[in-house]
Amino acid sequence: MILAQLAEWGVERIYGVLGDAIFPLLDAVTRQDRIKFIAVTREVHAAFMAAYEARLTGRLAVCAAGAGPGAVSLLNGLADAFMDGSPVLAITGQVELKKIGAGAKQYFDQQALFNIFAAQTNIAVKPGSVLSMLVAATRTAKLNNSAAHISVPKDVFAEAASIETVPVSFVEINTTPFVSGSLDNLLKVVQGAQRPLIIAGRTAKTVKDYVVKLVDQLGAGLIVAREANGKIAGRHELNLGGIGKAYLPPVLHEADCIIIIGAASYEREFIPQDTKVIQINDRFENIYQNTVESISGDTGLLLENLLQRLEGHSFNRDWLEEIKGLVQSRRQELAAESVNNTRPISPLKLMTVLNDIIPGEAIIALDIGEFTHWFNLGFQGGQQEILLSGRWRSIGCGLPAAIGAKFARPEEPVIAIAGDGGFITSMSELLTCVRYSLDICVIIVKNHVYSIEKNKMLAEGLIPFGHELTVPDFVQYAKSCGASGYRIEDPADIQNTMRTALNLGKPALVEVICAEN
Question: What is the pTM of this model?
Answer without folding.
Answer: 0.95
